Amino acid sequence: MKYFAALALILAGCGPKASETPPNQAADNGQAATKPLPAAPPAKPFSVETKNDLIEYDFSYPAEAAAIPELVKRFAGEMEKEKSELVANAEEDKAMREKLGTDFNPFSASTAYETSGQTDRLLSLRVDSGGYTGGAHGYASTDALLWDRRARREIKFADLFAEASNRDRLLTQRWCDSLNKAREEKRGEPAGGGGMFDDYPTLDDVSIIPVDGNKDGKFEKLLVVASPYVAGPWVEGDYEVELAVSSDLVAALKNEFKPSFKA
């Protein structure tokens, strides 16, 4: 019995201790602990198009917007609503024209978001929309979408200022002077004759789009766009003028937005 007990103790001492980890397993654990996680794939631009005998519809937005989940969700809702309304209106118009014995022209709608510039804090998107819904001619409009990454929401251009009234004080006269020149170029005659389209749309009636033309992460220009019928008749199309960001404008901004602009 003593022999067998001694043999058991010898064999137990030769095996690995319960608290020890085999060398190869320790190495594996060390590698697993330091191995970096795979990087998330970069966002890609989005584009979808539908074309049939009833409608033509397309919707697109850039990679910068695709990287923001809140915008992706918002755009999905826009697409669903726009397309369903387009189909319903086209079906109604087609049924009416069949009763009247007149030709039906497919309805169309297009929405395209494009990046006009971005900073660490803000993403500036230009939104061009257009289409045809059975009238004498189509429609077109340009809007702006300014996204605050930190607040994770859309903000208006006027929200950038410490006092909202500074927007009008600093930009209204510059906008009117530039619009007047653009009107004269299109019309071939002096503007301001008191006609229907000789007044100056307010800054609330146009789209103000911050632009980073040299892609240095700061907005140095403002693109002001008046869609058709806002500053002129349909045949004149839209009016687009560029206004340089001034030092006075930067000074009038809220402190958190000043680093996004340069004069």
TrEMBL record:
Pfam families: PdaC
The Deacetylase PdaC domain, residue ranges: 49-138
Region (Disordered): 18-45
Record Gene3D superfamilies: Fervidobacterium nodosum Rt17-B1 like
InterPro entries according to UniProt: PdaC (IPR025303)
Name the record gives this protein: DUF4163 domain-containing protein
